[in-house]
Amino acid sequence: MSLVVFPFKTEDPEVVVANLRVAAEHPSVSRVLAVGFEVESTYQAVESERDDMARAASTPIDLVLQERVGTKRSGKGDGMNTALRYFLDETDSERIHFYDADITSFGSDWISQAERAADLGYEVVKHFFPRSSTDAMITWMITRAGFALLWPRTELPRIEQPLGGELLFTRPVVEALVADERVQAQSDWGIDTLYTFSTVQAGFSLYETYVSQGKAHALYGGLTDLRTMLVECFSAIQGLAGEVVGENVTHQVEAAEAVPPSITEKIGYNLEVTLGLLSQNWTERQEHLLDGFPDPIRRGMLANRDAATFLFMDEEAWHLTYRRLLESFVPGDADWDELLFRLWITRVINYTATRALRGYEHAQSYLASMVDGYVHAAQSGP
Ligand code: DGY
User: Fold this and answer.
1) How does residue 213 score in pLDDT terms, banded at 50, 70 and 90?
2) 190 by DSSP, 3-state: which?
3) What is the pLDDT of residue 313?
4) How far apart are alpha carbons 377 and 371 in whole angstroms?
5) Pair 70, 206 in one domain
6) Over pLDDT 90: what percentage of the chain?
């Protein structure tokens, strides 16, 4: 039997409560856990509804506050790691599932699909979804690109959505994650990267299950909304560089189906607001930090002080930029954070203007071939 966990902050309480109810009513679920960031309106709504829901479904629904487990900014990582510890200490369930609490398209099938893969013997199951071609820009440009450049011979760059928060772990996986100090320290947005990395490094088998209706949740405005996540996801990869990962992991990916227009036609972020960011917040120190970058990148970036310029930041330039960032980026340094953010925006706008505008299919195959290109480049040496 399984424990299903929803970490949450302030979300639409009706959505969170509906998702808890779906989980509690699922026949494979013996307990549901909501992990709140703090006591606020969503937490109170869950608290007032959970007894009635639990009685109606005959499944306990627990509510806890996340503990301070890690050493980075206290965020999603502390919430998920709190749940892993709860699973080991308070339950004898065999499997734990995680789902984001704010998903309006969540359904009982999501749990069944993961259970079916675990029944086949897979130790980790991750859900993946069709995503708009301008969404998933941290996934593609930071995580999959970084996995390709650093561990080209492994399964890591082939994982569809390494940052996805919808997944299942079996008990031995949870034991390994709780025993892994790097994972427990990662209290911020880097947690998804660490879970993906650590489970592949430990050799656990992985199944990726496809959810065709997609993950409906709030849209981003300008890419600023993603700034903290970007910096924390890049720092997580940088912190792992130098680790050794084996090549032999069982990894199965379910075939994807036709993608609905609601996703192929969706624009993932506000382009006009984002273009404006290229010329803002420059400091003299950021200009100096660019001295260490190859010249076309340095010159191109500096030109952005006067007018938005991004055509130079193609996949080759991003490769060189990424390698330089891996060597030199200093986590927690405000100028490095801003420069990383600006470099990434330049890359995302370049991709949007030259690829995403050519249509969904073109964009998807371009992104996949970009990652393949990085895998090949990294295998053939520096
Ligand atoms: C990603 O890149 O996957 C982030 O969720 C932002 O879309």
Assistant:
1) confident
2) coil
3) 98
4) 10
5) yes
6) 86
322-340 residues labelled b (16+ CB within 10 A) or e (exposed): bbbbbeebebeeebbbbbb
Judge whether 382 lies within some domain: no
**Is any atom of ligand 1 closer than 6 Å to the C-beta of 137?**
yes
Q: Give the count of alpha carbons within 13 A of 234, CB side only.
A: 29
- In this structure, the number of other CB atoms found within 10 A of the CB of residue 210 comes to 15
Residue 146 lies in a domain: yes
Of 264, 285, 303, the one marking the end of a domain is 264
Higher pLDDT, 131 or 34: 34
Our answer on whether the CB atom of 139 is closer than 6 Å to any ligand 1 atom is yes
- Three-class secondary structure of residue 8 per DSSP: strand
| C-alpha pair distances (Å), 139 with each of 131, 183, 280 | 11, 19, 25
Domains held by the chain: number: 2
Residue nearest to atom 1 of ligand 1 (CA): 136
Tell me what pLDDT residue 221 has: 66
pLDDT over threshold 80, residue 376: yes
The atom number, within ligand 1, closest to the CA of 143 reads 2
Can you read off the two tokens belonging to residue 54?
A: 């639990």
Q: Residue 220 has what pLDDT?
A: 64
Tokens 């991003």 -> residue: 318
| Mean pLDDT value across residues 169-193 | 98
pLDDT of amino acid 214 = 81
Q: Which residues have a Cβ under 8 Å from the Cβ of 130 and sit 6 or more positions away?
A: 212, 214, 256, 259, 260, 263
317's CB contacts (< 8 A; 6+ apart) are: 294, 296, 297, 300, 347
Mark whether 276 and 256 lie in a shared domain.
Answer: no
> What kind and span of H or E run contains 95?
strand 95-98
DSSP type of residue 249 = -
Residue of minimum CA distance from atom 5 in ligand 1: 136
**Minimum-distance ligand 1 atom for the alpha carbon of 163:** 3
142 lines ligand 1 (CB under 6 A): no
**Distance separating alpha carbons of residues 8 and 281, to the nearest angstrom:** 32
Q: Is 177 helix (H, G, I), strand (E, B) or coil?
A: helix
Residues 296, 244, single domain; the answer is no
Question: Measured between alpha carbons, how far is 250 from 123 in angstroms, rounded to an integer?
Answer: 10
